[in-house]
Every structure is written in structure tokens, then in C-alpha cells.
Amino acid sequence: MRPEPLLHDTGHFLPRDLSDQQVSRQVFGPLQQFPRRVAWRWLFGIAITLLLMYLASATVLLANGVGMWGNNQPVHWGYGILNYIWWLGIGHAGTFISALLLLIERPWRHTLNRLAELMTLMAVICAALYPILHLGRPWLFYWILPYPNEMGLWPQFKSPTAWDMFAILSYLTVSLLFLLVGAIPDFATARDRAQGALRQTLYGLMALGWRGSQQHWALWRSTTRVLAMLAIPLVFAVSSGYSFLLTMGPQSGWHSTLFPPYFVAGAVFSGFALVALLAIGVRWLLHIEALITLRHLDMLGRLLLATGWLTAYGYLMDLFMPFYSGDTHEIEVLLTRLSGPHAWSFWLAIVCNVGVLQALWWRSVRQRPGVLAAVALAVLVGMWAERFMLVIPPQTRDFLVSTWGGYTPTIWDWTLFIGSFGVFLLPYSLFLRYVPMVSAFEVKQALHQERGDD
Amino acid sequence: MSASSLDFAAWREQLAGLKGSAYWRGLEALAATPEAQALIEAEFPGAAPLLDRRHFLQLMAASLAMAGLVACGKTPEQAVPAIRQATQLTPGVASWYATAIPFCGIAQPVLGKTLAGRPIKLEGNPQHPMSGGACDAFTQAAILQLYDPDRSQAPRFKGRETSWDEVRGALARQRLTLDTTRGKGLHIVCGASSSPTLGRQLEALRRRWPEAQLYHAEPFAETQALRVSERVFGQPLNARRYLENAEVLVCLEDDPLGSGPRQTLLQRGWAERRRQAAQGQGAALSFVAESIPTLTGAAATRRLAIAPSRLPDLVLALSRALGDNVADQPRLSARQLDWVDEAASALKAHPGRGLICVSKQAAEDVQAQVMRLNQRLGAHGQTLDWQTPTLLGYERGQFWASLEQLSQQLAGGNVSQLWLLDCNPLHTSAPDLGLEGLLQKVPFRLHAGLYYDESAAHCHWHLPLNHALDGWSDTRAADGSACIVQPLIEPMYSTRTLHQIIELLLTSADSDALDQVRITWSHVPQSQWRQALADGWIEASAPAVDVPEAATWVLNLIDIDGLEAVVRPDPCVWDGRFANLGWLQELPKPISTLTWSNVVGLSPRLAEQVGVRNGDGVEVALPGQLLRGAAWIEPGQADQVIALYTGYGRSHAGRVGNGLGYAVRPIQSSSVSASVRSSGEHHTLAVTQTHHQLPDYEAPPIRVVQREAPQLPAQQIPASLYSSVVDSGPQWGMVIDLDLCTGCNACVTACQAENNIAVVGAEQVANGRNMHWLRIDHYYQGSLDAPRSRFQPLPCMHCEQAPCETGCPVNATVHSRDGLNQMVYNRCIGTRTCASYCPYKVRRFNWLDWSADAAPSIQAQRNPEVTVRARGVMEKCTYCVQRISAARIEDKQQGFDFDTTKVVTACQQTCPSQAIRFGDIADPASAVSHARKDPRHYRLLEALGTRPRTTYLARIEEGESSDEA
């Protein structure tokens, strides 16, 4: 008998007596027989409606130009950049949960990592579409890529916009790899359990010929660890990257060294909020309350609270710095954030991200799925308001008073944003049906380790 | 190829029938017409009938070649270019022709640039003393009017298009009647004109039909001033003001620097005075008393906001202060008297160097007394002299009649024929004349004008006139010199000049337009005539007239209790004659920066009383007119005054100008009693600048120095790790002297014309998407009720350390070796990072496709040397890089070193104040280098370390004096 591991304790999270068969049934069962078909159909219907809305808005946009949006002079960057930052921020939590917690060996992540990784993938795609649609001439977006061409033209590597392109692309690649590699053993199980040649073939392709040999496991283990090590710095690089989009310009209210850490905290914070929401949803939809337990939700609540305070520290510093600098224009921009025409965004962010968040100090809140979902939703709204507050009001108060202006998003700004949830939800609802939403083999492994039966 | 075989005019007539979106794509579309067949036969004999493969290909090639002709025009053969050049037209090489654009009958001498036979840009005629190479916004926009697709293109009878043959027939019948009645019943209404040819023709007309009556129909005309001068001096005389000599300028409700036919001249004089004062040669003081804020008021040393009804009191007080023996007591407040005392003592301190200007609409006694005061001050011969009127219809004792008299004649049923020549009285006359109704009784009504306008719609016949740039005429400039209006292109549509139309009436002959002008100048030999065409004028300035001593006038004080309305011409569309020009509609009105509409101006206090904010609807009642418009709060306006602007509310201006703003007709006096109330509506107004307060920063955008010590503290420019971009060859830079800028907008329109800048419309301007590369920022300083106005033209700064260049991910904005911040449209993908990073916000984005669906004629106007920008790309001021390249290439071809002084940007060229200097800052001898060493020199937002190449000279203020409410 080994000594009880201090850090590897899963006992609080999963029922000790959960058998392998039960885990497999819970995870792979829905691939054959979905437990809540009606609810799923509703979800799918909503997703497809939103996606159509997105496609229609994008078509109108592409046909007429970005003038369909509310952007103007001086607010050259409106919802295109704002929603890009918001979606990309959300994407970070998935990688954080999967990669960082994997490296520091937190076994409770095993029930959450798959759904978080899928969320990351879709959020990054939602985000990545935005800068393209935001372009004046979107059909030429590939000019940002460094590809050899007869004109001998390369991207301008000093531009943070170019950095963004690299950041998104590498992030997308790494998260996709991480997701696919991480799920190989589960795809193999799905292949083995699948009925029908088509499913067998498709799952078989995803499983890459996985047979579960010792060599396979050894390779798999080192690959996932390497990918995780690649992914962690990317979390920081990408959110710092898009903060550079703002900070590299001379604009007061943007030009701040605080932004990179501030944005990382905000990104992970908003991501955890969506992970919490998804975990609650998936848990109910797939009927896997035994795998995603209240303790998991409790943990997510704590993380949310912790990253929320990091973000709040960012707010505090962002408020303090202009006054500390004494720069008249910095103070003016700050006061516009606090009391200008878009002051609602600042106060909404404070209320949601700082105020409502404090409910999570109570375990009863954290462990009640409905209430936690409400708080998470508030955080998502609050983070969107925060992105708004960071991106828009400084542009309306530029250096020369003569160029001060306002900003009102148009109906097309809204339809595209609301529609982007369709881009997220439609694939996600299909994942629910066709992808093992929990990393079954890792859960089993953790259970075995916990019980000490090798 | 003779003009008759290539009958473009006939095709134009055919095309004139096409309306709206039925644009035609080229001459192929017309190939079926007999004319086109004839052309093809003439050009390619034998091609048309035999269509074998070989001939078919030839024909195709021909039709393609002719399709290209759409892009070309034809310069009249008799036109003489201003600059000697090869006789043959070389594609891509510009020709320059001197001509003149009449505005309110007064010539604006210009040089017109044509490329491939198409006029594309107007510049002031540097040889003409009235222009000196500068011109105003209206003149800059004349080129757009030439190409306006809504210009009237064919004669009409009762609204339906007809042919000139029909017109000739109808006029022949009328002539028979007129011959029998000796012209009785013929009443001719004319817009202001100074054309010697028109004068000669009208003289002939009156000799033949002595009973014919002539009328003036020009709104805001100088009739009143001329009538007064006739009473004071015994003959009608026109004042010529020399602001360059006026060390003390006192303006009473007059706006010499604002829009108007003499703006260029007066502004040049004003700037010259300030320039000399800045060098320590004499003073440059101005005292302005006015009811509504104007450019002259903005430039004033001391400004006084006062109701127009107090003008007689003000003149009375001024007369007393200047020692004139007048009995009455002025009813003025202590502050108003202070202003008078200060103005009077300044005038006395500068004997012979003072000038008092008064509104030409002011009461007779006020104007007469001002004439006397000027004489007393010794202004004559120094700051003022007198000339016989240049405009037609103001001969001594024989002024043409006014529209009131026409109204009486119409009411009396004495009018059997009414001719409205180059005027639109149904839009511009006072409504109490009731012309609309009275007109209907006249059996024969004829209108000749550029547009099928409101007056045309009320006439049986409408005859389209040529534009000044496509028809021969002559006109006189403000100094009385005569200019030949030389067309730059053959008539674009089936139009005639006014001279041809009068000849048609008199003789039924379809005369040649040039012949009519040449007859007037038949005493000039042909060689001299050709020289005159090349120079742009044929007769030098008129001599000054000696005037007798004027007597003191008794001033009648005006009693208006309560509110009074002032009606002014709109600074951008005047009386509405420019309403269909997108450039001028979108030109921000000075001070308010409003576009696309007129407003009802109220002082902050009055707005508070009425309970309205900017854009709220108000109803204004003045005698005979009730109008509803959008309120606009004008800080600095007199509290008793409601400011109304003409030129809007048009129904027949064209597709651009119809249905904008509210209609108000000019009034007969300087103000009338009126009332205003809120109507509860709200209007969206398109302003280009929503905030106007001059910030109280350490480094405000507009810096001011005192006259006694015109120096700014040295600027601290943050150090940079990067080397300055100065490399080799010329380094371009621009210095704008804020002491000389009046905010007149001429540069903005010049930039628009030169650089194919798109017009986006009211809705997009309201969205903050106006496209001007050069904008004029306006700031208020001081109290809400009596603020000072400051202007700052802002083109691209061409920063040496440009933030925009860092931002662009695709290298679409880069720095050139000669210091230009360049925009590569082809490479731009529209991330807008550059604009987000630009601290001056001078970059403009093509949010939608602004340019593609322009009418073909508007496309023909575009400068072929400047790319027309597509949707989704960024654009901005280039320092007119096409002009830089053209000058460099020319020097290189001729084997010279690049003479950088030859490069003149469009804004610099047209600025009447010459406030803009441009050139090579690496050359220590250049004007721009000198300006950069001026102690008033500063960089905008220097603390950002952008090292802008466009820099400013601070404005000079006089002492500590402030404005008075």
C-alpha cells in the first residue's frame, strides 16, 4: 500500500466506486443513444438559425463594405475588433485547463478538458473570422501571411496586426493538435464501440490506428506533454499579442504597459466563465452528473473568483495610472470611460466582473449549477462590456478635440455578433453527438490511481 | 476632322433624352444611329457596308477607339493656351487656358487645366491682379458644375424637351409682335452681369425696342450701395477697398473675408496687411460689430455682437467719436460705447490708414454716413477708391428696375413677354412680391439658365445656357478690368450662350458664340486678341473716379423691439445657385462645420429661452414668410437675432441639391422683426466636428503669441532611437501660418478637386465618414456668449516617425526617401490600424464604394493623375505627390537639377491668404525653411515624438483685449 498522494486526490471529485464500465457507458453511450434528444434538437435549431443570421450578415457586409457597420472616423475599430478580442479571450481558458493543469497534474481537469478544448477551438474560429470580416478588402486577407510572391512583398513585421495573424494561426494549430492528439485513445474506444461501417471508419481515422500498446501510450504521453508545454506560452503570447494591437498605438487609454497581463487575466477569466456554463450544460444534456460533479463546478467557481480578482486588479491599476501619470489627456480619456456616453460599458463591467462575482465566495452558490451559470453568464456579459470599454471610448476622445466623435453600432454589427454564436454552437452541438465529451481513459486512470488498484 | 462630321453635339442631344440610371457605355451604344454610321463612313470609307471578317475587325477597333473618346473632350479651336507649347495636343501633357468664371457678375480670373481636351482643374490666374493665383471655394467648384449631369441639356417647351429649331421659330414669331409694338410689354429680368458683350446686345435690343423694360434679379446685390453713392457723390460708384493698406479696419455688419464675389481679393489684401504687421510694418487691427459670427468677426481684434437694428446708433456713436457734429444721442450700452471709442481712437491714431466697411444691405443713411466718415478719415486713395460700376444696369439715373416694380407691372397686366435671363427669381425674390402667382398671367414666359430650376418650371420656354467653361463670353473683374471667358471645351450639351440667345431673338440667326464676343472687341487687332486670350484679360483695371466732398447725414434710428431676423447667403451654396454641387454641399460651413443643410442660428441665450438644442425644429415667422428649420446654437451671435441662410429648400436644383434644409427668401433690409418658437421636431444635422472647445492643455493645438513678443518657447521633441529620415535629395515639408488663415475653405475644395475626393452625402457625414484630406479644425475660446474663433487647417502631418507606418501589417503605408508618408492603395487591405494609430486623425477610409457609381460626366471630371480609390482602402493627403512627380520628371527630361520651388500643392496654390508654404526643408534657402526658423513655429502634438513635417506658425493676438457680447 502506497502512502495517500497529497496532490493526486480525486476522491473529492469523483465517486470512488465508479467503475470503468460505468465511465465508458456515460461517455460513449451518448454517441449511440443521445439521452436528451428534444433538448438537443432545440439547441441545434437555435444554432442553425444563428448561423444563418451570421451568414446573411457576412454576405451583406461583403457585398457592401464595412460601412454597413457603425465604424466611423475616429472610431475606426468597432465591433470587429471588440468581438475578436472577446472571443479570443474566451478561447484561452480551454488551453489553460487542458495544458496547464495537465502539466501540474490536476486530475480533476480530466472531466473538463475535452469540452474546454472544443470550446477553445470554436472560440478561436469565431474570433479569427472577425479580423477578416473587419478588413476593408477581406478577399485580400492572405496578404498578411508571409508567403513568397513575385512582387517580393512581405508583411510588415513591426505591425501588431501582423503579429495577431501569426498568433491566431499558431494558436489554432496548437489547440487543434492538442485536442486531436489528446482524444486519440477515446476515439479508439469510440471506434471499437461504434456500430456501422461509416462510424467505424471515421472514428478509426481519428484514432490513427491506436491499439493501446505500451509504445503507443509512451509516445502519446510525451506528445501531449510537449504540446502542453507549447500551448502554455501561447496562452500568454496570444493575449499579450492582441493587447499589443491597442498598446502599440499612441492613443491615450490604449498606450499602456499594463495591458498584456491585464488582458491575459481577463481572457482566462472570461474563458472560465464559458467553461462553467458549458460544463453545466453538457453535464445536463449528456446526463453525466456523475462525471462532472458539483465539486468540479465548485472548482470552476473558485478559479473564476481568482481570475476575476486578477482582472479587478487590472481595473484598479488602469484607474490609478492616468492620475499617477498626471497626463491631462490620459485623465480625460479615463473620465470618458467613467462618465462619457459609453460609461455604461465601464459600470456594467464593474458590476458583473467585480460585483456579481463576489457571490462565488459562497460554496452554496458555487455548487448550485443554476446560480453558478447565472454568475458565469454575468461574467461573460461583463467581459464583453469591458472589451467595449477598452476599445471604443478611447477612440472617441483622441488627442485633438476637433476629432472627437461618437459611436453607435448598426443592426449589422449586432446580427453578426449574435450570429457568431451560431458559428460556435452549431459545431459544438454536433460535437455533443459525435465526440466523446469527457476524456474517459484519463478519468479511468485517475480513478484507478485513486483507488490504488494498478 | 471638322466639327460637323464629328457631331458630338447631336449625340449629346440624343443622350440628353436618357434619364436617371440609363447611362450609356460608349459610342458603340449609338452605332445604330445615322450619325454614327456617317462618322464611321467618314473615318473608315467603305468599312460600314461590307462586313467581311477583316472589315468587321476594323470596325470593332474603331468602335473601341471611339469608346475611349468618352474620356476626351475637345478644346475649341479658337482657344489660346496661356502657356506657349507645341501646337499639337500631346496625350498626358496638360494645357492651360486663361479664362474667368463670373460669380454675381464679377469675374474670378482663372487658369484652367485641360488634359486630353478635358478641363480638370481651375487655379487662380497668377497674372491677374484680382487673383494673384488664388481663388475661392466657389471658383474651385465651378469645374464640377461644368460636368454636373443635372445641368439643363436641351431647350424645353412647357417642360418637354424640344429642339433649337422650335425655339428659333417661336422667337421669330415673338419678334414680329415686338417690332410692331416697339417692345412694349417685353420685360427682361437679368441676373447680375458685367459682360460688355451682353451690355452691347442689350443696348441694341433697347434701340430696336425702346419700350422694353430691364430688371435686376440678383439677390444680395449691391444696388442699395450704388444708389447711396449716387445720392452722396452724384453718380453711382463702386467702392474698391484696399485692405492691404488698412491698418485699422472697422466692419459694421459687413463680412469682407467671407464668401462673396470679392472674397479672394479682399482676403489677399487682409493677409498682406497681417504679413506686413508681423514684420513690424504698421498695425493690423480690426474692429468688427456684427449680428452673426462671420469669418471677418473671427479674425477681429475686437468683436462686438450687436443687433442690426442698432447699426444706426453705432454709426452715430462712431461719427461723434470721430468728431462729426451730430445731434442725436446713440442708444448704446457702456460696453458698446467702449468698443466704439476703441475703434475710433484706433482710426484716429492711424490717419489715412483706416477703413470703415458697412453692410451693403444697410439703410441708406447708414451707408451714406459711412461714406462720409471714410472720406473724413482720409481713406480715399489709400484704403478706398471709387470706380464706375462694373455691373450692367447701374448707369447714372437709369438703374434697371427692381423686382418690386416687376411685380407691380405684372399686377397691372402690362407684361406680355417675360424673359428671365440667367437668374432664378422664383427662388431668390422676396415672397411678398408674389411672383409665382402673378407670373401665370404672362402669355409668353421664357427662362434661360444653367439649370431647369424653379423659375424655369414656371415658364413656357426654357433655354439651357452654356457654363462659363464651355461657352464664349466676357466679364469684368472687381477692379473693372475686362476678362474674356474662354471655353476650355466644346459645349458638352445642346446649350447656347446668353449672347447667342439674345442674337437669336434679335435676328433669328444661329450665331457663333465667339463672334458675338469678338464683335464687342472688334477694335482689338487679332494679335492683341490672341494675347488677351492667352493672358486672360483684355482691358486693364478701370481708373479711379474723383468724388466730391460728402455731407453729414442724418441717421434714422430703427426701432425693432424683440427679435429680428437676418437673412444671409449661405457660405457654401450662396443663394442656391451652387446647391447641386456635392463638393460645396459637403464643404463644412465655416465655424459651425455643418454640411448639407442650412439652419436657424440662435444665440445660446435665445436658444435657452426658446427651449431648443442643436437640431431641434423651430418655426420662424417673419413678414410674408413662415419657415421651419433646424435650430443651431451659434455662440457669439447677438441675442436678439435669428440667423437665416438662403440657398436651401430647393425643389429644382438637381438630384444633389433638392429637398435639403428650409427655404428662406432674401429680405429687403438688413433685418426684419421676427419671432421664433420650437416646433417639437428634431433634425439630424451632418456636422464634421462635434466638439469645438479649445482645450486648456499645456500644448493646445492652436498657439497664440502676443503682437509685442511674437515668440513661442522652444519645443522639447522627445529623443528617438531611430535616425531622422532625412536622407538625400529634397525633403518635403509644409508650414501653415495660422495668423493668415481665415478659415475660408478654399483649400479644402481645391484639394477635393485636385485629388478626386469622394462626396459621401449627409447621412455618411453625420456618421463621421467625410472624406476631406484637408480639414479645417475650428475651436472656440472664451465665454459661451462671446467666444473667439480659431481655425487650423489640418492635412496629413507626414510624420517622420509615423505611428501609422508601424501599424500597417502589409506595408501599404510607407515612408519615401523625400520624407513623404505614402499610401499604397493597391496594397491596402483596410485593417484601419494606421488610422487608429494616427494621433491627428487625418486618414480617411472608403467605408463603402463612394466613387464607382458616379455619373459618367462626373467621372470625366476626375483628375487622371490621381487614383480613384476603391472601397475598403485608406486614403489621405499625399502632399499632391502627383505634382511633385510631374515637376521632377519635367526637370529630369530637360536635364536640369530638380527645382523644388516649382512644386506647389493644390491647397497652397489656391489659398487667398497664402497661409500655406510648401517646399524642401533640406534647402536652407527655401521659403518653408525660413518659416520653420520663425519664432512662431511649432509642431502639433510634439510630445508624441512623431516629428511632423507639416508644422504651424502661431497666431498673433493684439494685447489683452477680449471680445464683447
Automatic annotation (TrEMBL), chain A:
Task: Name the residues that span the membrane.
Answer: 42-64, 84-104, 116-145, 165-184, 226-247, 259-282, 303-324, 344-362, 371-391, 411-431
The compartments listed are: Cell membrane
Q: Which UniProt keywords apply?
A: Cell membrane, Membrane, Transmembrane, Transmembrane helix
Domain of life according to the entry: Bacteria
Q: Which residues form the signal peptide?
A: none
Where, if anywhere, are coiled coils annotated? none
The membrane topology of this protein is: Multi-pass membrane protein
By its UniProt entry, which InterPro entries does this protein fall under? NrfD-like (IPR005614)
Q: Has the keyword Transmembrane helix been applied to this entry?
A: yes
**Which protein family is it in?**
Belongs to the NrfD family.
Q: What is this protein called?
A: Polysulfide reductase NrfD
Organism, as annotated: Pseudomonas farris
Q: Which gene encodes it?
A: nrfD
UniProtKB/TrEMBL annotation, chain B:
Report the Pfam families cross-referenced here: Fer4, Fer4_11
> Residue ranges of the 4Fe-4S ferredoxin-type domain?
732-762, 819-848
InterPro entries found in the cross-reference section: 4Fe4S_Fe-S-bd, TAT_signal, TAT_var_transloc_signal_dom
CDD domains per UniProt: PsrB
Q: Which domain of life is it from?
A: Bacteria
What's the protein called, per UniProt?
TAT-variant-translocated molybdopterin oxidoreductase
